[in-house]
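hey
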């Protein structure tokens, strides 16, 4: 017999030395976590995240070294009818007097009436670090609330960046707390149903959580090479729980199945390592390749997500091959304790009198159409998936904006009243200019001319107060002008105003200045530029992921056909998920059902991220199922029977893993922000489609139709010797025969 695979050798050592393996794992996780905490997090800067002309504008502004303190506003409006100007001025003076006494207020501006006289605005400049203003704004809000009590005939409210940030943080904090409180017990409950035993259900969760903890520390260390963003930790948790639970689930189910056949604990662990362990390595490699494709996007956010995801998947794979066999060997039959009576009878591995697993009844029924009429089944199922994917051709990409933030907070309700009375406080474009200091006056004149041209254009909102405010840096090299538009940031009018600035107005006014460098940024520009960036990078990333996944699958299964079908099936799954996203979120029919307001677009970063995540996670199921089919073929089973055996024998674990992921991802769909709703629905729908239609209908149809051609490969890829089949189990112990 040749040298045993590395997965088996690792599992054997761990099973024979369980306490050493467990101790080494605990030390590894602790060192990673503590080391990462000690090193500290290196966060991405504006320079790291600069994309397109928006990014250039941001870098020009940053180079000016402007003092940009946090600002707030007290907005005074009438509760009904017209505003009593005398009462409004008295309330404004009262607010100014009170706020001057509050710690954290640097200055109070002159009250500014709106053009139509419907509101009075008191500007507030805060002291201290603008980045922490949201944490320090509550005393100001409390003071404004006292002014409201003193002037009940008016509406007195506070609004500004720090207030909105605090409201969002409070809302998102509650959302994430609820999601965290739900996700762990939901996962555990599903695993208890899947295993019928508490310890067996707890093992996958334990491995997943420890993998996440280790990856968090490693990603902090890695941030000194690839700067991290504030979304990295959330993605590590999301991906880590998904793959950690999946890998453990595959391994534990196979080990229990082999023990049910009468094998010893050590033999069961070895076979699980040789079969499920091998599938975990291949699956993990596929996920790592998929997430590695994000590095080609040349984007700090995606690079950070790629590094975090790669690390957590790698750690989960290592844990599945080392500490998991040790735990199973040490626990032995205790892994099936304590049993949940009814669930145990339904989920325990069953064996017949021949010692082989009892045949399930449900899945053979599901597979009948694919096995008996593969052509018709394939055509119908693929047609349905393509029909579901078709709406994706009309996908539009945009960033969420202020109008997409839930209006259930006082800060956002006040923001709507502020932008209605003072349009220049809403959506705006940033015109950033850098030129030699001696050109400063010429730049100012050009920007003043630009402001005058926009003031008479209905696409733009005129400046409030005494005219345009042009900020100039201390060295007089950088000048900045904010050009407002009265239209919502995602509207076609806002987009047209951006293009008019970039293509006509800014070049016409600034283009003739010697040595000038300019760019137009702002929220609308960020959305448009990032969408263009995603559309440009998506084909590159997709090609990389498809090519490397093809090579891994072809070499693993020694079959070009299996590799090609794997790619096609995953593309069908991703396309259907895209189409479903467009159907749900680019129209308004599901607004009441899911609690959102349609933005008539998909969040800009989602298609690229969704593609690599789905392609990686789908491989979990595909590798596991095809491995069972290949295992049956290597034992000499005819192709049609091997397909039926592989899918029915893996259906339980694949279904359990899919239910866990669908449940956890669905929790994200309950969050307030549209980003997370789309992410949750997209992931949950794709996993559901993948585990049902793709694996139970399309895959068996294709593999039945192809027959022996499934395993075709060029001569250089073929196995030199037949793959060693898993040896038949010994006769089952009397107490196991028919015991379950």
């Amino acid at each position: 017999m040749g040298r045993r695979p590395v997965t088996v050798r690792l599992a054997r050592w761990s099973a024979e030395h369980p306490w050493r393996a467990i101790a080494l794992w605990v030390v590894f996780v602790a060192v990673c976590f503590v080391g990462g905490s000690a090193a500290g997090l290196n966060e991405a800067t504006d320079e790291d995240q600069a994309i397109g002309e928006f990014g250039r504008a941001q870098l020009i502004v940053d180079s000016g070294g402007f003092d940009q303190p946090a600002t707030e506003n007290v907005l005074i409006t009438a509760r009904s009818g017209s505003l009593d100007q005398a009462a409004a001025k008295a309330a404004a003076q009262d607010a100014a007097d009170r706020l001057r006494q509050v710690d954290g207020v640097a200055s109070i501006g002159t009250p500014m009436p709106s053009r139509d006289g419907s509101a009075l605005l008191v500007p507030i400049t805060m002291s201290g670090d603008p980045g922490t203003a949201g944490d320090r704004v509550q005393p100001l809000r409390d003071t404004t609330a006292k002014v409201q009590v003193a002037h009940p005939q008016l509406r007195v409210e506070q609004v500004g960046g720090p207030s909105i940030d605090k409201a969002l943080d409070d809302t998102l904090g509650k959302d994430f707390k609820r999601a965290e409180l739900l996700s762990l017990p939901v996962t555990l409950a599903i695993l208890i149903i899947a295993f019928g035993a508490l310890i067996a259900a707890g093992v996958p969760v334990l491995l997943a959580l420890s993998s996440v903890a280790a990856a968090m520390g490693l990603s902090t260390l890695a941030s000194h090479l690839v700067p991290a963003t504030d979304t990295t930790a959330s993605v590590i948790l999301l991906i880590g729980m998904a793959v950690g639970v999946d890998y453990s689930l595959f391994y534990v189910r196979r080990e229990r199945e082999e023990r049910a056949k009468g094998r010893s604990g050590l033999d069961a662990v070895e076979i699980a390592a040789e079969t499920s362990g091998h599938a975990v390595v291949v699956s993990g490699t596929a996920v790592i390749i998929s997430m590695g494709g994000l590095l080609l996007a040349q984007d700090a956010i995606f690079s950070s997500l790629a590094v975090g995801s790669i690390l957590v998947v790698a750690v989960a794979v290592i844990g599945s091959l080392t500490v998991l066999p040790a735990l199973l060997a040490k626990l032995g039959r205790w892994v099936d304790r304590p049993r949940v009576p009814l669930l145990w009878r339904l989920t325990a591995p069953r064996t017949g009198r021949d010692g082989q697993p009892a045949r399930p009844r449900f899945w053979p029924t599901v597979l009948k159409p694919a096995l008996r009429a593969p052509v018709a089944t394939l055509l119908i199922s693929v047609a349905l998936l393509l029909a579901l994917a078709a709406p994706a051709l009309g996908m539009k990409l945009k960033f969420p904006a202020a109008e997409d933030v839930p209006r259930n907070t006082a800060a956002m309700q006040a923001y709507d009243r502020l932008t209605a009375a003072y349009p220049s406080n809403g959506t705006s474009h940033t015109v950033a200019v850098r030129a030699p200091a001696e050109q400063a006056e010429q730049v100012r004149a050009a920007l003043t001319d630009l402001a005058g041209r926009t003031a008479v254009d209905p696409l733009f909102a005129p400046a409030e107060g005494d005219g345009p405010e042009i900020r100039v840096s201390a060295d007089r090299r950088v000048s900045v002008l904010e050009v407002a538009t009265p239209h919502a940031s995602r509207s076609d009018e806002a987009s047209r105003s951006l293009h008019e600035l970039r293509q006509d107005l800014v070049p016409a006014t600034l283009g003739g200045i010697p040595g000038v460098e300019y760019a137009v940024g702002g929220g609308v520009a960020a959305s448009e530029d990032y969408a263009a960036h995603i559309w440009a990078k998506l084909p590159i990333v997709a090609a990389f992921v498809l090519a490397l996944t093809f090579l891994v699958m072809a070499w693993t299964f020694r079959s070009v056909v299996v590799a090609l079908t794997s790619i096609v099936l995953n593309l069908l799954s991703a396309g259907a998920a895209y189409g479903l996203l467009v159907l749900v979120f680019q129209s308004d029919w599901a607004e009441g059902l899911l609690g959102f307001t349609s933005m008539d677009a998909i969040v800009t970063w989602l298609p690229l991220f969704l593609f690599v995540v789905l392609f990686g996670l789908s491989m979990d199921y595909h590798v596991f199922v095809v491995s069972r089919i290949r295992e049956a073929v290597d034992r000499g089973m005819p192709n049609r029977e091997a397909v039926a055996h592989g899918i029915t024998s893996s259906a339980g674990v694949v279904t359990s893993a899919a239910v866990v992921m669908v449940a956890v991802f669905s929790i994200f769909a309950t969050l307030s922000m549209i980003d997370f709703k789309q992410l949750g629905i997209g992931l949950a729908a794709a996993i559901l489609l993948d585990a049902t239609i793709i694996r139970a209908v399309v895959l068996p149809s294709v593999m039945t139709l192809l027959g022996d051609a499934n395993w075709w490969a060029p001569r250089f890829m073929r196995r030199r010797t037949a793959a060693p089949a898993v040896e038949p189990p010994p006769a089952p112990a009397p107490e196991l025969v028919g015991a379950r």
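Confidence is low (pLDDT under 50) at residues 721-725, 727-740. Residues 80 and 154 are 9 Å apart (CA to CA).
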